[in-house]
Write a structure and sequence with these properties.
270 residues, 9 helices, 5 strands
Length: 270
Amino acid sequence: MSQTLGIDLGTNSLGLNCWDKCDSGLLKDQISASVDTFINGVSSGSSSTRESSLAAERRAFRSTRRRFRSTKARKQATLRHLIQYGYCPLCMESLNKWRFDNKDNGYDRTFPTDKSFMQWLALDFNGDGKADYTSVYALRAELMDRDFDFSNEAERYRLGRALYHMACHRGFKSNKGTQAGDEEDADDDGTEPVSEQKKASGIRELMLANGLKTIGQAFHYIECTLGERVRNHPIYSVVRKQYREEIDEIFKRQSLPMGDNGFYKGLVST
């Protein structure tokens, strides 16, 4: 007498069945049977006992690393562009030390710590050791309130700092349902998707009710007039398109060239 082992491989289970087999080849008696199930995809079970699979954990860490690299690359690209046009006090050599890994040239991917650059990040444009603004939102609002003299280096640095802040927060371009030449975050007819409209509806209503043209002005209003932290406010959610709109409004207010101008195109493409 011999035995037959049957194996059933499923997407999230493994079944085993063992039978005695007679001399004629027919199955006789079942000896044992079992089914082992395992986590399929990201999670399984109730919300209280849900556990991530090893593959899902690896995917989550990989996604985090990719977002970090993408964010870092966008910051570096924006700084490189601002340096090129004289809107950031950092030198290209210091930026390259952060961008590249080349020990022969002294590049070790360390973040720049130049004094003038650190003051620029801290909103200290006159070098007195004190921030000139309560927040970057105050600076972004000021860009819509008065004429800046960009022949003055400190004035250029103010604009550059505001643009860098927007670049750090505006997220990534979406490749969902878009083609080359299409406006990011837009449907085929040029309008915002319904999900984007819903996400940004709160901040847009605030802007409309108070005559505010940019989200920078809106956030400054929330901080100063409402006395609330922007990140704690329920209408904080904005979409990438609104940052593009703010850049356009600032350039119009300050009478800066747009269209085919290299400085403007480099900003909206990052």
